[in-house]
Amino acid sequence: MDVKRTITTLALAALVCAALAATAVAGGKGRLYQFRGEVLGATSGTVTVTVEGGNHAALRAMLGQSQNQTFTLGQGTEVLVWSKGIPKVGSWSDLEQGDWVQVNVRAKGGASLQEIEQTPAGIVGDHAHGPNGHALPLFLYVGTVAGAQSGGHIQLHVTGGNRHALRTLVGQSADQTFTYDDGTIFLLWQGKVPTVIDASQLKAGDRITVRIRAKLRSTLSQVEATPANHVGDHEPAASIAKDANS
Length: 246
Fold this sequence. Notes:
Blueprint lengths: L2 H24 L4 E12 L3 E9 L1 H6 L6 E5 L5 E6 L2 E4 L10 E8 L5 H6 L4 E4 L11 E8 L7 E9 L1 H6 L6 E5 L5 E6 L2 E5 L9 E7 L6 H6 L4 E4 L3 H8 L2
Parallel strand pairs: 4-7, 11-14
Antiparallel strand pairs: 1-2, 1-6, 2-3, 4-5, 6-7, 8-9, 8-13, 9-10, 11-12, 13-14
């Protein structure tokens, strides 16, 4: 067999595969990275978001990164503005500070956050208000981590919370176990700057906050079975106070 011809054939095959992969991503067939959060600002080419959640691929890409991130808006980006459950096509100028958005980006599997952010978003959904329009009340628990985290559960020694959370604890032990899933965002606060971490980085004794959206009058067991939206490690008191009276 001609060795040079074989090497050339393999090289061409590799180039074809790479081209097909690039085409698949450009055509919307790459991995979906979905980020959810509040708009900080927008221009004709970018939208900056305080990320509060997302799918597993998106949150994994954000590990060790700041909560505030800027995404690219391209000619093919579709901005959908939702009102009363009905979407209409809008533009970047409809993205106002404080709006709750969902940014969908298609990029190669295992892409870095920088690569994802440089890839124009496919869809930006502007829902104006937070998840479920904040129709579901917030249950905020404050406490210290009681053990190592694994299997989608957080062991927490509760020391405080908002009124909805404290109501569920009447007559209950201060030691409780809460649930998280791939959509739960974990933030480590260092001063006033939060960065995204993995659940496994929580350590026994860490002071954390657990935020869960659940139906009004939910029992403690119902709240604990609902995956947390947000877990904050060493969250500043000023940040906690914003939700403490909700």
